[in-house]
Amino acid sequence: MSSEHQSSTSQSQDAPAPATIGPDTDLKDLTDLQIQELTEQIKECDASARPLVSELEPLNSLAEEYAHGNATFRAKIDDLGRKGWKGIRRIRGDGNCLYRALAVAELFGILEDPQREEKARQASRQVEEIQGTLDRAGFERMVTEDFVEPLTDLLKSLSSSTPPSSSSLLQSLNDPETSNSLVVFYRLATSAHLRLNPDEFLPFLFAYEGELQLDAEGMPDMRRFCENQVEATGREADHVQMAALAQALGLKMRVAYLDGSGASAGGEPEVDWHEFGEGRERTFLYRPGHYDLLSQKEA
Q1: Catalytic site includes residue 290
Q2: Closest by CA position to 94, among listed 237, 212, 192, 228
Q3: What value, to the nearest 5°, has the Cα angle with vertex 27 and ends 233 and 104?
Q4: pTM over 0.85
Q5: CA-to-CA distance for 168 and 164, rounded, in angstroms?
Q6: Pairing mode, if any, of strands 280-287 and 251-257?
Q7: Catalytic residue among 226, 238, 290, 292, which?
Q8: Known catalytic residue: 94?
């Protein structure tokens, strides 16, 4: 756990809980439980209102949401624009948004890569390695293969000389059976990494404020945490899941935090960035309880 995240976690524990959560709320003032509650609200409002994955939209579509609202949000969206971010791809807020967003980022990243065929083959080899990790973590291959197959099929199509079009890939990612299988695959990959490396991630659980069960020695029970908070669909990802997922896939997951916190030292408000892992970059936009994708590509 990086010092930056330890500091952020400490601030969230020490800060008093806000009476209400609104556009002016600073993410650092929210407890894990409040973020969980907010996630449930978003899920209820968003479950049927949006597709699972949207088309790439101009970043100013996000600014329009706050045109008559919080000036700090607008300033931070402007900050993203000045730093080269041009688009947003929205993900349905159903509690699976981080895992679904990652699947979208990975597959579109391959489709748009100049070395697409080789990148797709590399990803296929990684999926095979993760299947072995799932085996070692105790998951039954007969079960996990059902969730691995849709991803391997998509990667096979991306490695061919006639890959799917952007619209065809988006259609596949909006197919509930395919899309939800990808979510489960990434959840299982996260859980397996946590189960096989419990000592490395236990410090995250000491700071976790959600549902947490202890083992016979009074320590956080990693297996039960994985069963209840990682493998269960509809459970939003926290720092521990993101750190494990980034390690498992060899990623640098960059997260732009968009909230109502003000500028430091009297300057213009800027987006706070957090990073997990090292490797190929995938970039997310986080608002309390929800993840979307940021893009430097024009919509």
Answers
A1: yes
A2: 237
A3: 40
A4: no
A5: 6
A6: parallel
A7: 290
A8: yes
